């Protein structure tokens, strides 16, 4: 029986591109979902074996819906991540020229990333935000479409048989979105030597130094944080929890020790998974444990402590 | 000549309600703008004397467009803030009953905050996101409207002569949005004893302890942080800057010293203003300087240092 | 065969009083040694089963000779500690009156603690420092003694058949000396719930924050330091190592974790023992683990981590 | 009228050598004192214009008597420091050979530093500690001397007309003692760019992190500590204050800010002076302010803050 993958649909989204990059083999059933919440629901219920959703974008920041689902509801784990370059294309039905475009549909995040181009090339066009870039493309392809054009991923144009009116309409050529592969709790991916661990921390109370204490738990073990994002807890203005990504795998001593430290000082911790880093082989992120915090250092110190505890000091 | 206030329109938005709460007098010209970017542009260009925009919501988090404008472009300062309770109403044209509602329009943030109610009471309705809750109300009021109902603020229903089909449709009754009053750089509001200072910090480099160092600059002076939000710098995944709110006014010694510390260790700092706290009189946020960090403590230490430097030790 | 106890002699020293307080039973052979180095040598060589030496005094500070021996040479462990009140008596041969005393002998530390009394009551007396207060008493008792009187412990006067010319001649009535019971490396005393751990840390390099990093290793695990004393390494001015006493037993998770942290970041660590606190039952030092750092907290966090690592998140 | 210099006598001490190195000109009256307390008393009373005393030794550590006087009593300031290499010579009356030496006198610190040599070359000699190495030399020179030889500085041998029986009898050839020049409170020495600031800190209370907080006050301003020595307050075991040496002059912004921070969080601070470093031109201690903590950085940040406070953000 093939693997069933839920993803943020409809067909043709950047998320579908991410899913194609993430899944281990060519087989499998793709289940497009109408929202991030539906992706999570499908995985939680077992309707899908796993799911893919966007987590953050290099221009827009964290994807609120995904983060909200990760924080709340039945826990899912991140089993993998992938970064997909965001390349936007303006699609229309065949025969439509740029000058004809008066109504442009796309997703809100995409719109935000194409504002500059639109202001320059389509200053008079009205813009509409829909549930996804692919939904915009699909809508444009329908008879009697309310929009003249859609900003979407290349794959969406292909799927809905649209014509590229303009390519590279994003304001930044280096934009990227990070997607995560979600599974129900179970055995974690084995450490690869270049992993990432994600979690959510709810501070015990709002005393001034609480966040510093939390960060110290990582710093003292030489664990580097690659993302720190505050999210409202929903309990009123000024109440936040923190979504953290850290270098390393929870199976490693240094990460395990840091997480135990958080567990002790935080009101609550939600573990979101340890998984291979998507950028493990890029120059941006060389793996350099701080002085005294390599796994070998931890192992040596454990051996030393065992001797000390046994009274073997010589 | 009356004050001209730009705000996130159209008429009937929560932002208009915030503006009414913020402005000092009843006079003044209100200039609704089609987006947060337009509000900033109006203030920057002088087309408006000041502007109002949402900064964060207790459920959805930071408002990306506002934060992006605060970080980038010509600097504006926050001169005041106000928190507005978010109470959502489902509006329709007269005669429409709940059972008739098939297509609901609202802003994306509002939609996110009403999902639970919609799932329960309008499970089959289609939802559409438009540029604001007020725009949704206005669209519903138009002849031949593409939507049956709008989720919006009470003031929007009044302005567009709609009928409340259901009140309190938000999933959380305690949700609130924080709005800021934006002005061009100039003299700061005088300290009131219960102020807030906002800024954006770009860390000098990505070494593991950089964020801890930044937070230490506050902790050592006993300055409490009330918000810490990372935002992508736009230069690729994994690159963030930090938006900070701190207790106190930059005119105070302890805040001034902390900001000088940030200035020295950060690649860049953008000061966003010192202004009275909206929650100064609530129980949630009593003003309690940490041991040794009251303004009196700073004054006494300055006097002491002056004596020391003069060799007057006795 | 009775236990053989080396101690800083000769007979009648405060160290002998400490030994009487420390040893578990009435039997045992007492071996007075002429110096702290001789005490250590006797234990190291096996000539004695254990030894007793002064570690610090509440007025004079650390006892350099003892600390030097603990840091250098073959390692010994501290198996117990005791605090002995320092009550000084001025002793002379029978018939000598205070007015007759021109030459007073005692140990350098004792002299320092009686300066005020001597200045007031014997302003014209010459003072001499000898190897111990008991040696001073013994010298005074000898025929043709070069000194008229000795400042020593009460037990010394009894042993050498001297008369108390004046009692309570110390400048501070609350002075005390802390003595340690030294043994060759072997099984540690079992944790009692109120223990102390001693060690010496050699920092890896002299970068400004090295000592803060060291202290953070304790702070993050909520381990309280009760003593921090720098000692020169002997390698020139400005080169120090640090002698530390911490609350807790190395068998406890929080102390063990802190010591592993030190081991990883320090150039060298010498463990000096975990042993019951002498002041466990005094009001001065209630046992209060910081938030999240009780042994129960550590145990719970370990259980949690085990679940996390097994993918059991629910 | 010549300057009157009090110093730890008698004539021929290492302290006299330090005084000769410290005083600015050849004139001046030298006043040998019988103890460190007498040196302080002479300066405090005005009997001397200034004084010289040993502060720490690279083998023995801090000189307790000097530190006690700096902490207690009427305040004096350190106006200068000098490091004097400790080279010990064994002196005797003419004609005495090494084999004849049965009784050796010297100061306790000197004895500690020559133990190895004595154990090897004079294993059977009895040792006596007197108030100074010079006093030992003087005593040996007297008719009917109770000692055969003295370990002292070369200058002492010359002054008391003794013969060097053996040179370099110290166990370490690189030992040095740091001496300080003491004056009554008054104008401080001008900053030289390579200065040191000394002070004593009494922590506000004994909570676990108090020392870390103190060190953070320095770390946050990039002020390097070159010495941290705990001393008992005298109020019982377990009560300490901390003697600190820091790089820089109190007239500098970064040092001034750090000291104000200490003033605010400590129960008490005693300022002991800012003065040129004796090791300013050695390789051991290059002057390298940490990132963002040069005086220029502080000046720039002050300018920036002034602009911010004036609302000049552009």
Please count the beta strands of chain A (DSSP E, at least 2 residues each).
15
- CATH class of the largest domain in chain A reads Alpha Beta
- Given as residue ranges, the uncertain stretches of chain A (5+ residues, pLDDT < 50) are none
Specify the CATH homologous superfamily of the largest domain in chain A.
Answer: ACT domain
- Shape field of chain A: elongated
Query: What is the strand content of chain A?
Result: 25-35%
The largest sheet of chain A, given as strand count, sense and whether it forms a barrel, is: 6 strands, mixed
* Overall CATH architecture of the largest domain in chain A: 2-Layer Sandwich
Total discrete domains of chain A: 3
SSE ordering of chain A: EHEHEEHEEEHEHEHEEEHEEHEH
Domain Prephenate dehydratase (chains A, B, C, D): 4-184
Enzyme class (chains A, B, C, D): lyase
Catalytic activity (chains A, B, C, D): prephenate + H(+) = 3-phenylpyruvate + CO2 + H2O
Keywords (chains A, B, C, D): Amino-acid biosynthesis, Aromatic amino acid biosynthesis, Lyase, Phenylalanine biosynthesis
